Structures are given as C-alpha cells and as structure tokens.
Amino acid sequence: MSKHRIFTTAFSKVYPLYVQKAEHKHRTPDEVDQLIRWLTGYSQAELETQIRQQTDLKTFFAQAPAIHPDAALIKGVVCGIRVEEVQDPLMQKIRQLDKLIDELAKGQPMEKILRR
C-alpha cells in the first residue's frame, strides 16, 4: 500500500471540512453523520468517539464496523479522479466518502445518495 499523507491525517481534521461543505449548501451536520454512518457502519456514539480520539483515516476505516455493501455503487469523479478506478482500497474508501459529501453538497436527495 502506498503511503499517502491523507492516511495519517486525523479524521477529526477532515470531518469539520465535510460539515462546512455541507452547511455551505444548506445541508446539516446530521446529514453528514448519516452518510458517514451509512458508509462505515459506525453508530453515532462510535463516530463521535473516533472524532474525539483523533483517529487517523487509516485507522478510522480499518476499525469501521462494516463498509456498506452498496459502497461499490458509488461512482463518479472526485478531484479529477474516478472513484471506481482507485486501486488502493483505503484511498478508494476515502474517495467514496468524499463523493457522498459532494453529492450532499450538490443538493441530491438523501435517498439517492444512499443508493436506495
């Protein structure tokens, strides 16, 4: 696995950026949390613990209770990179979360974002 700097970045550092991006487009922190919980399988309490403990992204995803089986349906471009073509499994999970937040910020309905 390659050593991307993002892997050692604390989830607590990127989380407020996700919330800020969502709120800028009139979405809520609760919706951000819902997306994160859907993707990772964390409960709200577990998610808050990960943030409080300043867990790095590598550990955050490694400890995720269950990556949602529909995560493979997350497709599209984030930062000029096709999410479904990312080779590194950890980087792909990070990009999938980025894509979910992008869709939220673009005003897509939650049902569509959650691939229902």
TrEMBL record:
Alphabetical list of Gene3D superfamilies matching this protein: uncharacterized protein sp1917 domain
InterPro entries xref list: SP1917_dom_sf, UCP033199
Protein's name according to its UniProt entry: DUF2200 domain-containing protein
Species, as recorded: Acidovorax bellezanensis
Organism lineage: Bacteria, Pseudomonadati, Pseudomonadota, Betaproteobacteria, Burkholderiales
